[in-house]
Each structure stands twice: as C-alpha cells, then as structure tokens.
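Input.
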Amino acid sequence: MIPQPISVRMTPGSDMAGTVVTTRVDPGLALEGYVLSCTPDGIDITGGSPAGVFYGRQTLRQLGPDVPCTHIEDAPRFAWRGVMLDVARHFMPVPEILRFIDVIAFHKLNVLHLHLTDDQGWRIEVPGWPRLTTVGAWRSSTMLGSRVHDLHDGEPHGGFYTTRDLRLIVDHAASRHVTVVPEVDMPGHMQAAIAAYPALGNGFAGAVRTGWGISPHVLNLSEATLDFCRRVLDHVCDVFPSEVIGIGGDECPTDEWPGGRELQAGFTRQMAAHLATRGRRVYGWDEILADGAPDGAVIAAWRGVEPAEVAIRAGHQVVCCPDVKLYLDYRQSDDPGEPTPVGTLLTVEDVFAYEPPDSPLVLGAQANIWTEHMESLSRVEYMAFPRLCALAEVVWGPADRDFPDFAARLPAHLARLDALGVNYRPLSGPRPSDARPSAPGNPRTLDDRLAELHEMTADLR
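Output.
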C-alpha cells in the first residue's frame, strides 16, 4: 500500500508550514542517532543528542516537500565523517566557507579539516606576528595546471582569516554539529612563514612560493623557532575548541638540517607535549608514524591504504583518507573536458566502494580537497559532488551497501543539490564550460601511483 503523503511545505525562515514538527532528546538512543516518525497527525524527531535531532531534520529536508508516512531509525557507523578543505593554495572567503559547511552538514558530515597554511600561503593571523599575513598570505603569481607545464598566471593572489573570521566559522559549524579541525603544517610546507620571518628558516630569504610541489625550505629547529610554533599552536587552541589540532608533518625535506628524519620525530614530540598542556592531541599526516608518533596522536592515513594498517598496529587512532580512494582533486573520468585532470581516475563508484579497515581504532574517514587546481568555490563543488555524496554513505551507512541502489537514488539527490545551488559534476560528464584549457593537467595511471606510494611509504616498513 502506498502511504498517504503529509503536505509539508518548506518556507524561508521556518521549519515546516502547516505541519506540527516536534523534537526531543532521548539519551537512550545512539549519540548521533535519531528516530523520525511521520504520521497524518504530525512529525516527530527524537535524537540521542541535539546532533541526532539535527540529523533527523536533515533527513526530513531530504524527503522533500511532500513527506510520506514513514518511520526511520538511523545512526552513523563512524564518529569521524569528514572532508579536508585546503584554503592555503587558493583562499576562500568566509561566506564561501560558511556555505560549504552548510552543504556538508546537509550530508551529515561532521568534521571540516581546514588546511590553513602551506608554502603557497599563510591564512591565519597570529598576535605578535603581523608579517605572517602582510607578507605570508600573498603570492605574486599562481601556477596554472600541473607543475610539469611550468605555466603561471602572473596575477597576485592571497587573503587570510582574522581571529574574528575564524570564530565565526567555528560557531557556524558548531551550530550545524560540524567540528572544525585546524591544521598549521609544520615543520615542512612552511615557505610562506619563512618568507615573512627568514629567521625561522635555514638561510632562505625569498618570497612565498608560486609553484606547486614541495618546497625544500623548512623550519630550523632552534629554540626561538620552537617557541614560535608553540605560540602559533596556543593561538590556534584559543580559537578552535577541537580536541585534536593538526600539525601536518608531511613531506618535510631534511636537506637543510644537520641530521636526518629523527629530528622531525623529536620536533613532533615537542609539539605534542605542548598541545597536551592545553588538553589537546596531535593530528598529523601518516609521515609522523616514522620513528614513532607521540602517544595519543591521531593519524590521517593518506599515502595509499597501507599507512592505516601501520597506524592500527602501532595502537594509534586513524582517520582514513587514502589518496587513491578519497582525494577529490583527482580526475573524475578520462574525458578530456575534465578541468585540469591530475592524479589517478577516481569515479563516484570508486569512492562508494572504499571501505576503511575494520578496527575500533578507525575513527572514520575523510575526503581531501587540495585546491591547487580549484580557484573558486564553484570549482570545489564540481570536484566534490557527487563523490562526496558517495563518501557520506560510506561513513554513515553499513559496510554492506549496494552501488546500483545508490546510483538509482542519486538523481533525486542531485535535484536537491540543484535546489541548493551546488555546482556538482553532471553524471553525464563535464560541460564545455567546465574545462580549463589554460590550466592543463597531468593524468596518472593507478599502477604508476601505487608503485610510487610503495616507495614513499618505505619509511613505515
């Protein structure tokens, strides 16, 4: 029998016009779980917490204006359902960050990992260090497309977030039950900071990096520089209430140091110890596993699928984000019209098929959006959706899931994204206007990338 629909019409500034919607919290439910009941008498949403009530509301929104009589009991599988957004390579204004938070919260994602600093830009003001933003937040030009082409636009680019901006972002996210996890990458990926304050480096006296790739210019490990890092982390802790604080730790060349990789391990332990005095834990890329990550560190496992297993064996909690599975800057098809096609092929079905390791140490997973080739929110949305919809199903729903079922439901969900004004990639492929011929790419084969990853992760074996 087809149930009779309840006429529920969304109106701006209100919940539902003409229908009674009641909400309550029942601690007996899973913390983020909810029960949604729709009857001819009204709609009831019961959550295990305010977050659970919020997710029930998102399901109600997704059901559309004509809600059928239904009963839904739902709860997420993973606690960390995230996306990393790189605002260092291309700065995104505050309103665009807030809009992006709204869209990921609509998909019941609950972590926004903000990559705030890198060689190509420093995006956070720090009291007492004004040149971080007057100098470090600006570059003279931007590389167009893959670095193998060595093309530049010759246009200045930059921007930064004030403390007030960041508090606004944090509060906006919290009201949607999204935790903002900040990342200030150190001791590598620091050319922008060193350009602002050369005493932090090892003799480099140049500008913010304009090209992509990894800068050889890293922090020195003097006590003055360590104190700088502590002061930066103190300010980050003052602004962001997240239990974990990202310190990066990835891709750090050691050529400028009078020693090897063990020096970075010591640096990481010192920063972890300082964060512990603030009641926080280190969140770092899987390179910090080499020579032993600090106790309590959370590992973002990105160099393929192997580092997650290494972290689990070492007893660390893990957020899974393997590049060949969840890097949304990677190309979506072999169509030459894809904008700046880089990396290996990563389709919606590929993302949907990813399954994190079965371990209680796995907090969840996140997709990573590196923005070297995304100069606008519109471009970010094109690369993120609908692949991020697939990840939302992976981290929320059961391990036993069916792609044909998801594919059958996806067109109706894309209509919801249309209503939200999201510039998702059409299932039919890129539109002519999506191409970026001025920013050519460099596609990779999966076999080549897997061989490269095997070599890159030799430090973990």
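The chain has a mean pLDDT of 94.
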